[in-house]
Design a protein that fits this description.
single chain; alpha/beta; Rossmann fold; seven-stranded parallel β-sheet; 7 strands; 56% helix; globular; oxidoreductase activity; Sc_DH/Rdtase_CS; NAD(P)-bd_dom_sf; EC 1.1.1.340; 1-deoxy-11-beta-hydroxypentalenate dehydrogenase
Length: 270
Amino acid sequence: MRINDSVAVVTGAAGGIGAAVAQRLLEHGGKVALSDIAADRLAATVAGLADRFPGRVLGRPGDAADESDLIALIDSATTTLGPVELFFANAGVGGGPGLAATDAQWEQALNINLMAHVRAARLLVPGWLERGSGYFVGTASAAGLLTQIGSATYSASKHAAVGFAEWLAVTYGDRGVRVSCLCPMGVDTALLTGFGADEAADTRLAARAVTGAGKVLQPLDVADLVIEAVGDERFLILPHPEVGEFLRRKTSDHDRWIHGMQRYRTTLES
């Protein structure tokens, strides 16, 4: 995939992985429309990037799960920068804890972590099929391949995000629509910080499960791997290579993997 002169849209781009991906895309010669529901933080990020990359940056606040906001974002990007060739569905929420999670927390997690991807694909894939090219990158999580101790909503919604990305790739990957799925463990972002700062026992447990499982990476390091994977048109992006080994253990002996995760959960609780 050629990034130079391509037009990309990145949601959840006020900070963290989204802002880092936008920066790396611009450094590789792309044009980028950034969006986030946090309007003030987005404006500051866009201003900093626009100073370095004049004429190639657009910012538009909005809800990544709201179809009308997505339409406005894609229309603005197309009018200002050109036809959208890459879409990074990066916006995400941590969700609620275990069985105590409310219906509203379940709805929010599924809406942002899954349906935002579905709605964006609905808007873009038909046009990409007509043109014969397009690239969709969904940010899921290692939790979408394994599980998330401490958060049922996060685990289930990220599994769904992985499943949707796989379906997109199977259905359209041989028709010009390339698909990648980003599945990191711990990354130094507001999402992980929010997990750790939450007073609820389950969400603090979720943070310990992430930080205890492997190195916490910096967003720009993750963005470098995303750019590399897009260039290679590789489906699964694993910034933490050990996730691949964890996944192999899970699929080779599911019961043994569950028992191991139970032991890990017990260790974290104690």
